[in-house]
Every structure is written in structure tokens, then in C-alpha cells.
């Protein structure tokens, strides 16, 4: 039997202007942006819709902006959201997956992501680092390269995005060393990324501590549909496990490639990406080869989907 997964993108999927049409369309969407602005102490709607791009790229703003976009799509869809068997999101996208499955209210997901983004930006400033993308080498090769480069500081695989696309994260000198080693190993591509810090690495430890304290007080319920967790690439169905995995996620790799394998093994043939861009759809097209891929980013996307599905 064919199964469906909802995907929610993470940082680097943002673009200036995203979500503006949905904001204009829905009172509920506007109220979510107002809540986030109040929590942030900054007008996230203006930053999302008008930029500048450099401001939107700041971790503190990027994460809530992307979440708000996804939640706005869900809000406009309402009860026309198709039935689904799994939900998962890339890094911060996991919070949208938890919201759509009822593990968190939309409001609490926003509050948690605002807190997470602020803590992570502070950790970036306290422990400067960077990330790099390596393409054309397998996970074993990348892990070996990180181990060899770690003589210059912390560096680990941070995002297993596909079978041959892995991001590494750590101290600047060690990431630079790993890039050079990857080139020597004949990687198709090895480049430093323009990011604010060493996400999903031990350098994020201060954010992990702060987030654990925050999530301890935040209501989380058992999800009504399985959420495939970044840390384990397996379904999670219990609130206590979700809380623990969200904390672990801050310093642990995003196992997205393994997540896609898990979904294929469990009969998923339809992928619906909800939020800005088509990054996750592109990865799925190559690695999952699903029968159907649907992107829901704009009001036009939603109208086309509704028209095609009665």
C-alpha cells in the first residue's frame, strides 16, 4: 500500500519574500507571525518579506521564519491537508513535523524555535566555527577525513543529506583541513559553506544545555502520526523521547539520508514538501525515487494542489 510523508525544510531554504502571500491571505497566519515577533523582539514578518537577505540569514531570524512559512502553508491548507503516514523535518524542520502531528501546538513550536535559534546564535558567537559540504565521498570516507582533521580541532559529519552529499561541522581550522583532505581523496566537491557557525557539532553544547532547560517546561504530547527523528532516523511516538531527541539534535548529526532509506523501506512513495524551496524534494528525487513529489510553498502551489485533488 502506498504511503505518504510530509517533509519540512531547514536552514538555507529561506528566501526573501517567502510566505508573504499566505500572510496576506490568513488572519491565523498573521497571528502566528505576531506571536513570533513578540517572542523575538523583532518584526519577523518584515524581515521575512523584505529582508535584507543578510538579516534573514541570521540564525536567530532564519529558523523562526522558515517554521512560520511551513505553519502558514498548513494553516491555509486547513482540513485539505492530505492524509499522511509519516512526518519529518530537516533540523529545525523537525519542529514543524511535531506541530503537524499534534506533538506540539503551533504556538509552542514557534516559542521553542525562537528559543532554539537564539541559543544557537549565542553558541555560534561563543564558539566560532563553520561548516563545509563534501560531495562524491561516502559516509565512511568522510568520517575518516574528519577523524584525521580533528588534530586541528573539533570536526564531525553534521548532515548526512544523501548517499554522496555530507556536510561537516566544527572549528574553522579543522573544517578547512578536512576540505583539503577531501580534495586529496578526489571528492567531486568540497567547499566551505556560508553559515553562522558549527551547527550539529559539539561546539553547540551551550545551546543544548539551554534548550534542555526550556523544553523541560514546554508541553509536548505523543504525536498522532509517527515522526522520523533526525538523531535516530527512526519513528518516534512518545513525548518523552521527542523531548530528549530534540535536545540531542543540537549537537548530533542530521541523519537525512538514513531517514529517506527508512521511509523507502516502510513503503513511502509520495513526498510532500511543505515550506520554502525544493531542497528536500531534490534529495528525495535522487535517493528515494518516489512516484509522486508535491511542493507546497506558495498560495499558487496550494491552489494547484487543491484543484488537482478535488
Main attributes?
Malonyl-Coenzyme A Acyl Carrier Protein, domain 2, Alpha-Beta Plaits, alpha/beta, 50% helix, 4-stranded parallel sheet, globular, 310 residues, 4-stranded antiparallel sheet
Which sheet architecture does the biggest sheet show?
4 strands, parallel
Distance between the termini: 22 Å
Which descriptor suits the 3D outline?
Answer: globular
Assign the CATH superfamily of the largest domain: Malonyl-Coenzyme A Acyl Carrier Protein, domain 2
Overall tally of domains: 2
In terms of structural class, how would the helical and strand content be classed?
alpha/beta
Approximately how much helix is present in the residues? 40-55%
| Assembly classification | single chain
CATH fold name of the largest domain: Malonyl-Coenzyme A Acyl Carrier Protein, domain 2
On the 0 to 100 scale, the average pLDDT is 96
Biggest sheet: strands side by side, in what order? 2-1-9-10
Amino acid at each position: 500500500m502506498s504511503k505518504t510523508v510530509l517533509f519540512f525544510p531547514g536552514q538555507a531554504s529561506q528566501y526573501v519574500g517567502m510566505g508573504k502571500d499566505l500572510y496576506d491571505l490568513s488572519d491565523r497566519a498573521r497571528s502566528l507571525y505576531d506571536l513570533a515577533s513578540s517572542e523575538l523582539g523583532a518584526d519577523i514578518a518584515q524581515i521575512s518579506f523584505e529582508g535584507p537577505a543578510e538579516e534573514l540569514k541570521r540564525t536567530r531570524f532564519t529558523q523562526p521564519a522558515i517554521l512560520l512559512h511551513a505553519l502558514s502553508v498548513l494553516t491555509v491548507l486547513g482540513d485539505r491537508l492530505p492524509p499522511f503516514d509519516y512526518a519529518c523535518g530537516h533540523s529545525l524542520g523537525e519542529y514543524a513535523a511535531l506541530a503537524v502531528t499534534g506533538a506540539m501546538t503551533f504556538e509552542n513550536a514557534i516559542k521553542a524555535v525562537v528559543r532554539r535559534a537564539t541559543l544557537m546564535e549565542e553558541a555560534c558567537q561563543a564558539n566560532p566555527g563553520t561548516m563545509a559540504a563534501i560531495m562524491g565521498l561516502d559516509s565512511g570516507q568522510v568520517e575518516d577525513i574528519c577523524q584525521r582533521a580533528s588534530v586541528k580541532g573539533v570536526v564531525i559529519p553534521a548532515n548526512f543529506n544523501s548517499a554522496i552529499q555530507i556536510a561537516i561541522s566544527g572549528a574553522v581550522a579543522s573544517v578547512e583541513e578536512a576540505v583539503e583532505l577531501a580534495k586529496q581523496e578526489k571528492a567531486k566537491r568540497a567547499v566551505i559553506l556560508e553559515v553562522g557557525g558549527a551547527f550539529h557539532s559539539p561546539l553547540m553544547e551551550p545551546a543544548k544545555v539551554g534548550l534542555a532547560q526550556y523544553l523541560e517546561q514546554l508541553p509536548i504530547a505523543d504525536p498522532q502520526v509517527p515522526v522520523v527523528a533526525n538523531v535516530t532516523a527512526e519513528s518516534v511516538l512518545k513525548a518523552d523521547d521527542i523531548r530528549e531527541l530534540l535536545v540531542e539534535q543540537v549537537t548530533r548529526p542530521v541523519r537525512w539520508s538514513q531517514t529517506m532509506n527508512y521511509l523507502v523501506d516502510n513503503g513511502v512513495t509520495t513526498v510532500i514538501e511543505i515550506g520554502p524551496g525544493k531542497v528536500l524534494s531534490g534529495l528525495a528525487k535522487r535517493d528515494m525515487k518516489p512516484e509522486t513529489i508535491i511542493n507546497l510553498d506558495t498560495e499558487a502551489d496550494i491552489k494547484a494542489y487543491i484543484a488537482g485533488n478535488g
